[in-house]
Specification:
mainly alpha
Length: 298
């Protein structure tokens, strides 16, 4: 039964509205962008693992959340999603991005003192923010919110071509931001380059210990043709799974990799009933993905 979740959008449209963006003329705004195809690939996996967004899709589109990245990209509500975000266009709705919308975004870049950044050039981005905003970040910065679920890349060449056909405004915005970013970092004297500490396993505890505790199995639910089968199974077996989950969480004090290794060692015999599955201690997330495949796909 789906709830009343029908609208979700950003709150930054006034920044890119020509009638209101003068309010930010004296502010420094940091705008960081990611490769737009990689961004929507990450979004597809990240949001598909969260019930609130699956409900939002169901309520607005009238169908189940897409099973493949290509289907997600092809839906009109996801075209030019970066522009949609900047303009606060609600997610998964019929509204489209126009040339005038694009022009408004580009014009805003010239009116407000943005500090630009790129996620694929994070060291240079931090140096730019440090210089432009007079912030000292130290020598090392923790790495936060790494996406745990990465969809398998099927038909990737087709995916790239279709994405580029449907997202021309996003691609042009990214090109503009990249050019402005390069101009800014060329003017930094003695740029200090920081290093980043942490990896994707730091995101395991936040995933499992969300407002509503989740099973690690749910990380790879979208590998199933019908992810709801896994979610239903987890709910039906909660009395068996939850005590084990809580015990492993308490034993490992936030160490995501150690937690996952212990949880897999305890869970594999229960789920596979004697079938052997070796744990990759260097990359237990891969073992978890294999476990989901053996239990729910094979």
């Amino acid at each position: 039964m789906f709830g009343e979740n029908k609208e979700m959008k950003s709150n930054c449209s006034d920044i890119f509205d020509c009638s209101t963006n003068s309010n930010y003329a004296d502010q420094q705004l940091i705008l960081m962008v990611r490769n737009p195809l990689e961004r929507i690939e990450s979004e597809f996996g990240f949001l598909g693992n969260r019930e609130i967004f699956r409900e939002l899709w169901q309520n607005n589109v009238g169908s189940e959340y897409p099973k493949t990245l290509l289907d997600y990209i092809k839906h009109p509500s996801n075209a030019n999603s970066i522009c949609r975000f900047l303009l606060s266009i609600p997610m998964y709705t019929d509204a489209t991005v126009s040339k005038s919308h694009f022009d408004s975004i580009i014009n805003t870049f010239g009116k407000i003192p943005f500090v630009f950044g790129r996620t694929d050039s994070m060291a240079e981005t931090i140096a730019n923010v440090s210089y432009q905003c007079a912030i000292d970040f130290g020598d090392t910065i923790p790495r936060y919110r790494t996406s745990l679920y990465k969809p398998k890349r099927d038909n990737w060449d087709e995916t790239i071509n279709i994405f580029n056909e449907l997202n021309s405004f996003d691609n042009m915005v990214i090109e503009e931001i990249h050019a402005r970013f390069e101009h800014q970092i060329q003017n930094i004297p003695n740029a200090k380059i920081v290093t980043f500490d942490g990896d994707e396993y730091d995101s395991v505890y936040p995933f499992v210990c969300a407002d509503k505790m989740r099973s690690p199995l749910e990380i790879y639910a979208n590998d199933l043709k019908t992810p709801q089968l896994l979610y239903n199974w987890v709910k039906e077996n909660n009395d068996l799974l939850e005590p084990l989950l809580k015990n492993c969480l308490q034993n490992n004090n936030g160490n995501g990799k150690a937690f996952l290794i212990e949880w897999l060692a305890s869970t594999i015999p229960l789920l596979l009933q004697g079938q052997k599955l070796d744990i990759n201690r260097e990359d237990p997330l891969q073992t978890l993905r294999n476990l989901v495949a053996e239990k729910f796909i094979a």
